[in-house]
Amino acid sequence: MLKVAIVGCGKIADAHASQILRIKGCEIVAVCDREPLMAQQLFKRFPIKQYFNDLTQMLDVARPDVVHITTPPQSHFDVARTCLDHGCHVYVEKPFTLWEHEARELVSLASDRRLKITAGHDDQFSHVARRMRSLIQAGYLGGNPVHMESYYGYELAVTGYAGALLGDKQHWVRQLPGKLLQNIISHGIARIAEHLKGDSPRVMTYGFTSPLLAKMGEDEIIDELRVIISDEAQTTAYFTFSSQMRPMLHAFRIYGPKNGIVLDQDSETLIKLRGGRYKSYAEKFVPPITMARQNLHNVTTNFKTFLRNDFQMKAGMKCLIKLFYGSIVEGSDDPITGREIVLTARIMEAIFDSLRKVSSAQAFAHSSSQSTVTS
């Protein structure tokens, strides 16, 4: 029986506990939060053996095999390192760490100690994402990817988490190096990182505060982001994050030298794009018929998944956890490689560095303009 613990008992911890309990051969032996009431509440909602408010005490007393880290991102590195030092395998919620060098250190430490570590990029393990991966591995693209497009829409409602962020200048998300973006975009970036061949991609970034947020007096939060990425093999990718674009997409497109694939995370649909053209007027009729058949197949596939009672909102998380536990017990391959984890962190840090440089340059230009006027 695999003994599991959860550190950090906020909202996302409920999702982790729910999915862990769907997996055979494991049990939640402890939860921990610096705020005892939070730990106690999670302990009462789920079949959990103990709760703690001290990490080291939990590790020494409960002696878990695996620890899920669901604390705010600022603490991920220190908590994960402590868990690895105690001989635990570690699942770290996104974003994995604040900085690339922290990601590299954790991946290296886990490797040195023969422990497993993974990142909470569960969108990559939804039903539709796994179908896409199988197609790619079977060679449907006709070779290495040529170009990718990753879209991640976000609803900045005035209630809930986003409302609290917009209304609180001291909110913990504002303390992140990449602020809102750092807490959100790793899902979309990880999709791209999985298929890049080089480890030192070029990153070009354009980000800004939307007119809607600007009208609300917001001048710190960037909620519109456009990124161009290219690797050493000249594979290119576009990443789009938007709170204003409609429809609000969570989608991924990947194109190879022969064919392409379009994934829609929201509708759980997968469309194969045929690279060749039909002759004459057949091009106007055959592709729409083929597209209709594929959409009907998507409906059938989703309905069968629903009937199997495996269509939960966090089905991807369950799959990732199950694969991660399997890699621990059976010694199978990591569901997400250390290289992908580090590369995702590297791309994100490059994005935030670029945004900071632009912001500093704009502030300097504004200051210089004021000095010229006043002089």
Write a structural description.
By secondary structure, this protein is an alpha/beta fold. It has 13 helices and 13 strands. The protein has helices spanning 11-20, 36-45, 55-62, 76-85, 100-112, 127-137, 160-167, 179-184, 186-193, 211-215, 282-307, 315-329, 338-374, and strands at residues 2-7, 26-32, 50-52, 66-69, 89-92, 117-119, 147-153, 202-208, 224-230, 236-242, 250-255, 260-264, 269-273. Helix 1 packs across helix 12 (315-329). It is globular, with a radius of gyration of 22 Å. Mean pLDDT is 92; it is low at 363-372.
Topology:
Blueprint: E1 2-7, H1 11-20, E2 26-32, H2 36-45, E3 50-52, H3 55-62, E4 66-69, H4 76-85, E5 89-92, H5 100-112, E6 117-119, H6 127-137, E7 147-153, H7 160-167, H8 179-184, H9 186-193, E8 202-208, H10 211-215, E9 224-230, E10 236-242, E11 250-255, E12 260-264, E13 269-273, H11 282-307, H12 315-329, H13 338-374
Parallel strand pairs: 1-2, 1-4, 2-3, 4-5, 5-6, 7-10
Antiparallel strand pairs: 7-11, 8-9, 9-10, 11-12, 12-13
Record keyword descriptors for this entry.
alpha/beta, six-stranded parallel β-sheet, single chain, 375 residues
